[in-house]
Amino acid sequence: MGWELDESIRSMVQYRYFNLLESMSALGVFDVVYCRNVLIYFDQPTKSDVLSRIRNQMSEDGVLYLGGAETVLGICEDFKPVPGQRGMYGIVSNVAQRAVG
Ligand SMILES: C[S@@+](CC[C@H](N)C(=O)[O-])C[C@H]1O[C@@H](n2cnc3c(N)ncnc32)[C@H](O)[C@@H]1O
């Protein structure tokens, strides 16, 4: 038998199908977004668009997880890698932070 999430936690979770190419504005604000191994399907402009719309749905101290072979570098300036945490990206919340990387 595999792992199973306790009902007390499962009852707080909503499972939904969602197309990342559609508007995300009704989804609410997230502290953590897992978008692992999905961007591989999109061309560069679409990756950029999806990432910036994901960012718009995230809290300022939120984190994004991408697949180990994926990156935001050169695609979206809204996120920056979290040092030492492979696949984990934090929000770049202002222009000054962007300038120093
Ligand atoms: C390679 S799988 C990765 C699954 C999982 N995230 C993982 O890392 O094991 C890619 C997933 O992206 C989903 N996907 C592809 N295009 C999508 C889109 N436009 N919106 C939402 N999901 C999409 C596919 O349905 C598939 O489940």
Structural class, by secondary structure, is: alpha+beta
Shape category: globular
Mean pLDDT value: 91
Strand order of the largest sheet: 1-2-4-3
Radius of gyration from CA coordinates: 15 Å
Structural account:
- This protein has 101 residues and is α+β, with helices and mostly antiparallel strands.
- It has one domain (7-100): Vaccinia Virus protein VP39 (Rossmann fold, 3-Layer(aba) Sandwich).
- The protein is built from three helices and four strands, in the order αβαβββα.
- A four-stranded mixed sheet has the order 1-2-4-3, with helices on one face.
- 13% of the residues are buried.
- The model has no long low-confidence stretch (mean pLDDT 91).
- Bound molecules: S-adenosylmethionine (SAM).
- S-adenosylmethionine is lined by residues 19-21, 36-38, 41, 67.
Task: Name the descriptors.
single chain, 101 residues, alpha+beta, Rossmann fold, 4-stranded mixed beta sheet, 4 strands, 23% helix, 20% strand, binds S-adenosylmethionine
Q: How is the topology of this model organized?
A:
Blueprint (H helix, E strand, L loop, with lengths): L6 H4 L19 E5 L9 H13 L1 E8 L13 E3 L6 E4 L3 H6 L1
Parallel strand pairs: 1-2
Antiparallel strand pairs: 2-4, 3-4
